[in-house]
Q: What sequence folds into this?
């Protein structure tokens, strides 16, 4: 029982750490930060450009990523599944494209570091000099 | 399947399929999506006195533009509302430039693959987007997604409002998106033209084997859509001229056979036409309201068409029942006794299987409400349809 409680405590603690460690990143050339609403609007296709100029190019982590679910619930108020259904409708109106899906944090960083309008979300432990943090909670 | 007719769109389709390979080579970004509606329907009954060329009444036209028509009393029919579409967008990163192509294979067209959309998009800035090429004519609220069953609460759109000759056009479209205070605003201005060979719309009158071509020239139009909270309002305007030519024999009701006397290979000019459309949608918690109202004027032939649809639905978890009433009338000042009209009521039930697929069941009851001087044309009918809709 003691071990079980200990494991539960560790699990909760790690979940807490994970939930707190998400950041939104952009190209090092990004001249400003983003507000929570700006990030949400870009990921919902409501905002087409980034404030530092150029077309917004949001990127996603895979469907299976826990970080993806947390990102959408906390930033847009929708679950990742609800957002997918939302985009399924929007794609065919010609009004925009859903975020491009990358496999890992490293892939997100690689794309963001080379594209002016790209933004992504990664674990804060993955932050390095190749990208710039434009939003963190 | 007509091989020759299908070849060009098929090559386009193939092009869309291999485009990821090309894009990889050219450093472009590729996004591909698709939609499927597998719909089966059965006429439950109705009158047999409809006069819809060689279609057997009782009959129900669910898709005027594509000649999607359920007919007769026997058997399950899958063609009128089944379709498969594929859309690919090539993007040049950091340029704001995109190329979008959409091809659709329809049961109503015997599976022929048709190029629906092919346009370039230039996102000029956060507010303005320019599109050039072939795309959907945005006459109505659901025009952009009218082929995407997953995006609709019904198995098919209300035919009284969505039943017209042209659904696409070739031209230029300027989109504007902004926020006016608490209002989210989308506006569009467009111009172009559309020529449709073998119009589905006219097959209802001239027979399933007839070829009639239509042309909408000098299309000019736009819409303004504003949304705030639970309310959404949309006004649409379009004007053009309208022509038709009958290329092959048409159905002669008197002799019940195809007759060459209908052939007229010169364009017949109906003159100018203009459309005003209004949509008002509201959401009250789980309850939602969808309404559309339109007036189509043809001043050169002294005619105006009026139609509306009103639907009320309720979201109950994954379930979504909806009742809809729709009505159509056409008035001609030179013949006030001859008023074509029809109405329909539908009961639709949608169930979301997951975030990208749904099943729906729908009962339709249509009434032929032509004035006595015309007599029945569409006839009365009752229809049940079941659909599986998916996006991928």
A:
């Amino acid at each position: 029982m003691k071990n079980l409680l200990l494991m539960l405590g560790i699990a909760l603690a790690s979940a807490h750490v994970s939930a707190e460690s998400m950041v939104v990143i952009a190209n090092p050339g990004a001249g400003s930060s983003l507000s929570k609403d700006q990030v949400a609007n870009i990921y919902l296709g409501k905002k087409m450009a980034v404030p530092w100029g150029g077309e917004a190019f949001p990127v996603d982590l895979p469907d299976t990523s826990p970080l993806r679910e947390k990102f959408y619930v906390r930033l847009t108020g929708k679950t990742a599944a609800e957002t997918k259904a939302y985009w399924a409708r929007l794609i065919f109106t010609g009004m925009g494209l859903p975020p491009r899906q990358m496999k890992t944090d490293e892939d997100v960083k690689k794309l963001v570091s080379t594209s002016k309008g790209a933004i992504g979300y990664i674990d804060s432990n993955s932050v390095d000099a190749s990208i710039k943090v434009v939003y963190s909670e | 399947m007509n091989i020759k007719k299908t070849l060009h769109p098929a090559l386009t389709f193939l092009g869309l399929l291999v485009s990821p390979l090309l894009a990889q080579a050219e450093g472009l970004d590729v996004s591909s999506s698709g939609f499927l509606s597998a719909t089966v329907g059965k006429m439950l009954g109705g009158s047999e006195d409809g006069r819809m060329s060689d279609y057997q009444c009782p009959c129900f036209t669910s898709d005027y533009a594509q000649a999607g028509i359920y007919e007769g009393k026997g058997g399950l029919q899958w063609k009128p509302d089944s379709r498969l579409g594929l859309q690919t967008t090539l993007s040049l990163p950091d340029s704001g430039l995109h190329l979008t192509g959409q091809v659709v294979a329809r049961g109503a067209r015997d599976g022929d693959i048709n190029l629906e959309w092919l346009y370039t998009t230039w996102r000029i800035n956060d507010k303005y987007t320019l599109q050039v090429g072939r795309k959907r004519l945005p006459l109505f609220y659901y025009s952009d997604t009218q082929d995407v069953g997953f995006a609709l609460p019904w198995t098919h759109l209300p035919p009284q409002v969505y039943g017209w000759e042209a659904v696409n056009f070739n031209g230029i479209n300027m989109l504007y998106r902004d926020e006016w205070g608490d209002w989210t605003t989308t506006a569009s201005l467009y111009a172009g033209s559309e020529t449709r060979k073998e119009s589905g719309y006219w097959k209802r009158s001239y027979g399933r084997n007839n070829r009639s071509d239509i042309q909408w020239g000098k299309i000019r139009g736009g819409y303004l859509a504003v949304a705030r909270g639970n309310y959404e309002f949309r006004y649409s305007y379009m004007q053009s001229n309208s022509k038709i030519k009958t290329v092959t024999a048409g159905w002669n009701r008197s002799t019940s056979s195809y007759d060459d006397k209908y052939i007229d290979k010169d364009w017949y000019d109906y003159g100018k036409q203009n459309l005003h459309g209004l949509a008002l949608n509201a959401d009250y918690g789980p309850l939602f309201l969808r309404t559309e109202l339109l007036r189509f004027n043809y001043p050169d032939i002294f005619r105006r068409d009026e139609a509306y649809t009103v639907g009320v639905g309720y979201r109950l978890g994954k379930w979504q029942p909806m009742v809809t009433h729709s009505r159509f009338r056409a008035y001609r000042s030179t013949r006030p006794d001859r008023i074509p009209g029809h109405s329909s009521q539908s009961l639709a039930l949608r169930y979301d299987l997951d975030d990208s697929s749904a099943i729906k069941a729908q009962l339709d009851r249509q009434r032929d409400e032509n004035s006595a001087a015309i007599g029945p044309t569409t006839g009365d009918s009752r229809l049940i349809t079941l659909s599986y809709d998916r996006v991928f």
